[in-house]
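Bench log, entry 3. Co-assembly request; chain sequences pasted below exactly as received.
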Amino acid sequence: MTTIEATEAGAPIRRESRFSWLWQLIRDPLGCFGLILVLLIVLAAVGADALAPYDYKALDIKNRLADPSFQHLLGTDNLGRDTFSRILFGGRIALYVALVSVGSSLVLGLILGMLAGYGPRWLDNALMLLFDAVRAFPVIMFALAVITVVGPSLETIIFVVIVTTVPGYARITRSLTLTLKNNEFILAERSLGAGVVRVMFSHLLPNLIAPLLILASMDIPVVITIEAGLSFLGLGVKPPTPSWGSILNDGYSFIRNTPWLVIAGGIPLIITTLGFTFLGEALRDVFDPKMKKDR
Amino acid sequence: MADNILTVKDLRVRFRTAGLVKALIDRIEDPFIDAVMKVSFDLGRGETFGLVGESGSGKTTLGRAIIGLVRAQEGSIEYDGNELIGLSDSQFRDIRRNIAMMFQDPVASLSPRKTVRASITEPFRIHNMSDRNLGEEARRLLDLVGLHPGFAGAYPHQLSGGQARRVGVARALALEPKVIIADEPTAGLDVSVQGEILNLMNRLQSELGLSYLIITHNLPVVRHVSDKLAIMYLGRFVELGTTKEIFEKPAHPYTLGLLAAVPEPDPDKRRDKLELQGEIPSLMRRPDGCEFDTRCPFAQKKCLEVAPKYEEVAPGHWASCHFPFPDPANARAVGKGAMAGEGNIPHVDGHATEAGHKSRVSQ
Amino acid sequence: MSENDHVLDVRDLSVSFRTGRGKVRALRHVDITVPKNKIVGIVGESGCGKSTLINSVLRLLSPNAVIEPGSEVNFLGDDIIKMNNSQLTDLRGQRISMVFQDPMTALNPVISVGTQMTDILYRLKISKAEKRQRAADMLAQVGIPDAERRLEDYPHQFSGGMRQRICIAMALMMNPALLIADEPTTALDVTLEAQIIHLMKELREKFQCSMLFVSHNLGLIAELCDEVIVMYAGEVVEQGEVHDLFHRAQHPYTRMLLECDPARIVETRQELPTISGSVPDLIDLPKGCIFSPRCPRRYEPCNEAPPDHYAVTDQHSARCFLVRDGR
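Structure output for the full assembly:
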C-alpha cells in the first residue's frame, strides 16, 4: 500500500535552487546590465584605497584644473587634487550614506509596518497617525531645518533620510501584512500554536522582504542624489571630504576653466542611478510572477 | 455510550458587527451575530463525524472554535474530559497538541517561503521540541502519508493539489494528535484523486486510532467517510444522526432539500425533485419562528410563529422541526412557482448581503 | 448530421503555449460539434484543456498561445480563427456569450448592474428607456424580484447566487446562438447550484440557444446535457450521446472516472477507487496513447502510436484501440 502510494505520489519534482532568481536576473539584459553597473560601483568604492592613484586630499596647486592625462585620469580640481581618486572615495561616501540610511529605514519601516498590520487596532491607528504627520512635511524643508540646527554632516543627512522614508516602507509593509494575515497559512500556523512573534518573524517577514528590497534598491539612487544635492548646496559633507555633489559644486564654479570636473561629478551619479534602477526593475520582474505560481 | 474524545455542549460563537461607538450612534441594540448557536455533539474515539452545511451555516466557525482560532462566548468544549474554554494560553497550548487541523486550500495553508520539511516540522519548533532529530521526523511523516522523501526540499508552489494535501496531513500528524479537524478535505481535488486522500485518512485512522471531524458541503463524500453527521443551518444543528439514517430517512426539510440538490451522475435519474428556493437569510436578520421557514416547502402557520425544539425524533436521531420526516409529495414548491397555499406563507428571495435590507414580501 | 444543423463545428483544433520550459501542447487535434438547440457537455479534470478549448472559441487566449495551422472553429459557417477584431467584437456577447466560473469577480464592482446590462445592448438602435426595460425583463426572467428597482444596485449588493443569475441574464441579453458556460456553478453551494441548473434548462427552452457546458462534475453533466465530450490531457478521448456515455462508456478513462465518482458508489466506507499516476507532461508527450501510462487495460498497440477515433455507434466514438479491436 505504502509503496504504491509513494510511487504515484512521488512524481519527479523540478528542483529549484535557492538562487534561481539570480539566474533569472542575469538572463534579463537590463537586469544583467544593472547588476554589472552596481557591482562596478561597489567594487570601486570598496577598493578605493587600492585603486586610487593619489590621496584624495593631496594638493598639487601647480597642476590645478588640469585636463585628463595619464597622470590624472580625469584631471584635477581647483586645488590640484586628483579628480579620479576623489570620485572613487566619493563613491564610498555615497554608498555609505545610501546603504546606512536605506538599510535602517527598511528595518525600522518593516518592524513598524508589521506591528501596525498585525498588532492591535489602536496601535495601527497611532502609528498611521504618526506616519501621516511625518509625511506631511516637505523633505527638503525638513532637511534644511535640521541642518541649520545641528550643522551639516553626513550623519545629519542620514538622519533626515531615515525619518522621511520610514513612513513609506512602513505603509507598504502594513498593507502587505494586512493582506497576508488572513491567508490560510497564517491561520494554519496559529492553529498549531504559533505565537505572535513567531508568526511575524518566521512567516510574515520572509514574504514581505522581496517587495521591500525592490523598493529599497530603487530608493538608493534617490538617496544618493539627495546627498549629492545637499552637498552641492554646501549643506552636506564638509571639505575636504569628497562627495560627488561637492565635486559638482566645485566644477560648477570653475566650469569656464575646465568642463571635466562637472563631467566627473555627474557621470558616477548617472551610472549609479541607472544601475540601481535597472536592477530594481529587473528584480521586480523576477519576483512578481514567481510569487504567483510556478509549475 | 462509546468513549467520547471530544464533547461539545451548547457552544455559542458570536461576532461583533459594529463597534461600541457605532452601535450607540446607530442605536443597534445587539451588535452581534451568532455564527454558532448552542451546538452540542460528541465525537467518539476512532469515529468520524461530519459537519455538513452550506456557506453561512457556521460549520467552519465551529471547527475553528474547537481548535481555538476563534473564541467561543458560551458553552463548553471538552477534550478527553478536560474543559478547553477558559484555559490560559499556555495550558491550552499543551492540550491543543492533541487536536490538529487540515485546511481547505492545501497550497495556501503552507507558508510559501518554507520548504515542505520546514513546514511539517514547524509544530516541533513551536512547542519547543526541536531537540528531536527534525530531519528524521520529516522523513517519518512523509512516509506516513505516502510521499517520496524527495519532497522534503520542495516549496508549496511546486506541489500539486493532492501532494499539498498530503503535506497538510503530515503536518497535522506531527505531534501525534488524537483528533483531526479536516476542513473540506476534497475541495479542489479532481474526482480521480479524491479517493487518494480519503483512503489515506481512512488508513491513518485505523493505524493511529484517530478521530475525525470532517467539515464539508460535499454530501457524496461525507456519506462515504463519516459514521455520524450533523446538518447545520444558520449556525444551528437542524439534524443529527448516523450517516445511514440521515441519508435513508432524513427528518428535516433542509436535509431533504440538500439531498435532492445533489445531481446524480445518471441521465436516467434527472430531477424534477424538490428544489429549494431562495437563499440562506442573513445572520443579521434571523427569521422568526423556525429559522428555515423562509425556504421550507412544508412550512405551516405554526412554523412561522414558534421556533421548534431540537429533540430526538428517532433513537439517536435529532432534528429541530415541528413536522419531521415530511413526505416529499407534500412539497409545495417545485420549480420557480410561487408558494400558494394556506395562510400567508411568505415568499422571500435571497438577500444575504451587508446591504441586506429587504423585509419579507408576502404574497 | 449535415453542417447546417451545427452551430459550432471545431475541426482539428490544436493549441500550444510558448513557455520558458518549452512548447506546451495544450490541445491536440480536437474535433467537436454543437448541434442546434442542444446542450453539449465537456467533462474533464484539471489540465485536460477544456478551458483552453472554450477560450479558443472566443479567441480569448493569452498572448503566448499559438493556434496551430489547420485548426478551424466554424460558427454558423464562419471560421472564427480567421476573423479580424471587428468581426470578433460583433461575435462576442451577441452571437456567442459566455458565463464564467466566479460570479464574485465577473461583474464590474463600480458600475451599477443596470448600466452593465444596458451596455451590452450598445449595438441596438433603441432608446435608453427601451434598453432599461429589456434589462429589467431579463432580470425578472432569471428570477430576481423587484427587477426594475434593482437595476440601480451594485454587484456587491447581491449575493453570489444572484450575481450568477445576473451574469446569465447578461449573457442572454442579445439572444446568442451559442452560450458557453465555464463551470458556472463551481463556486456556489449545492442548493444554489440546483437552482441555477434549473434556470439554465428553462432559459434554454425559452431562448432556443445551444449550449456548451464545461464542468468536472459528472452529476451536472448527466443532469443537463444531451451530448458529452470527455477530455484528457488535451485530447478528446470519448464523445457521444449522454445515455451512451454514462451507461456504455468505452474508454478506460471514462469508465474509471465514472467509477471514482463517490455519488455513484453505493457501498459506503470502503476503499475509494482512484486513478493512479498523474497527467503526463504536455511538453514531452508519450509516443502512444496519451492515457496508456495509467491505463489498466493497455496492451501491445497502446504504446506504439496514438489511436484514432473509433466509432461505437454513429453517435458515439472513443479514442481507444480496445474499441477498434472489439475487446
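Residues 196-232 of chain A form the longest helix (37 residues). Chain A touches chain B through 33 residues (CB under 8 Å).
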